[in-house]
Specification:
With 188 residues, the protein is mainly alpha-helical. It folds into two domains: 1-39; 40-187, no CATH class. It contains six helices and five strands, in the order αββαβαααββα. The strands form two sheets. Strands 3-5-4 form a three-stranded antiparallel β-sheet. Strand 1 and strand 2 form a beta hairpin. Belongs to the KdpC family. It is found in: Cell membrane. Pfam families: KdpC. Its main location: membrane.
């Protein structure tokens, strides 16, 4: 028994030191050489400061709506929903989001609404949405802001982030950056 216990204790101690001290220190040290010391990209616009890597609530019709958040866009309470796709209260919540979206976007059908506009991400703080999520909102924003739809489509194209190395993940758009660019376009 001693033959197995002492190596197990040694291995446990080594792993504790590695994962509780060495690894966190290495991650912290690498973050110090990253832009903004690993604190994420900070954007200042109209006197307000935003983190571009944390989802923001955009529900005004003048803006591209962001992805819903199960955490209320609170980074301290980052969490997804534990409700499954057959949960009655979850289904009612999604149906409410669909109905709200259709009221504000009357030219869109239910089938045209991308899933990321009516379902929250796993973290509840996803700052991105799909290109389709931006495109289905163009008519509403063009009408309200009196901007040509072609100009909005160009704006969407300019802010589309391609998949990693052209292979991994879908094309996506950072909603905060897109809405800031939208405000700048409107100001011209």
């Amino acid at each position: 028994m001693k033959k197995h216990i002492f190596p197990a204790i040694k291995l446990t101690f080594i792993l504790i030191v590695f994962f509780a001290v060495i690894y966190p220190f290495a991650v912290w040290a690498i973050a110090q050489v990253a832009p903004n010391e690993g604190k994420g990209e900070i954007i200042t616009f109209k006197g307000r400061t935003y983190y571009s890597n944390i989802g923001q609530a955009f529900t005004n019709d003048h803006y591209f709506w962001s992805r819903p958040s199960a955490a209320g866009y609170n980074a301290a309470g980052s969490a997804g929903s534990n409700k499954g796709p057959s949960n009655p209260s979850y289904l009612a919540e999604v149906k409410g989001r669909i109905d709200t979206f259709l009221v504000h976007n009357p030219t869109i059908t239910k089938a045209q609404i991308p899933a990321d506009l009516i379902t929250a991400s796993a973290s509840g703080l996803d700052p991105h949405f799909s290109v389709q999520a931006a495109q289905v909102q163009v008519k509403r924003i063009a009408k309200i802001r009196n901007i040509a739809e072609a100009d909005l489509m160009t704006l969407i194209h300019e802010h589309t982030e391609k998949p990693l190395i052209g292979l991994f993940g879908p094309a996506k758009i950072n909603v905060l950056k897109l809405n800031i660019a939208l405000d700048q376009l409107s100001a011209k």
